[in-house]
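Structure first, sequence second, as always.
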């Protein structure tokens, strides 16, 4: 079986990797040891990773909607997060 290269993988498939990279960038920036130029570069990369994650989540939501009701995905209700009330 042939694996997709990372460049050809869907945003949904790359979500975990993008999120992990974003978390690592945040940790680096929070140390305060990066130069201004490195901080700006890391921030720019972080924005790109954030957008990739957001796009992946949107595509995943669309897939769930299509699976829930393929005839009318626009009528699907968003999932409510579970309540954490005692």
């Amino acid at each position: 079986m042939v694996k997709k290269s990372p460049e050809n993988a869907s945003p949904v498939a790359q979500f975990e990797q993008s999120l992990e990279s974003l978390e690592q960038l945040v940790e680096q920036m929070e140390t305060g040891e990066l130069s201004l130029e490195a901080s700006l570069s890391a921030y720019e990369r972080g924005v790109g990773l954030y957008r990739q994650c957001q796009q992946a989540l949107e595509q995943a939501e669309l897939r769930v909607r299509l699976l829930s009701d393929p005839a009318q995905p626009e009528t699907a209700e968003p999932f409510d997060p579970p309540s954490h009330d005692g």
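Margin note: The chain has a mean pLDDT of 81.
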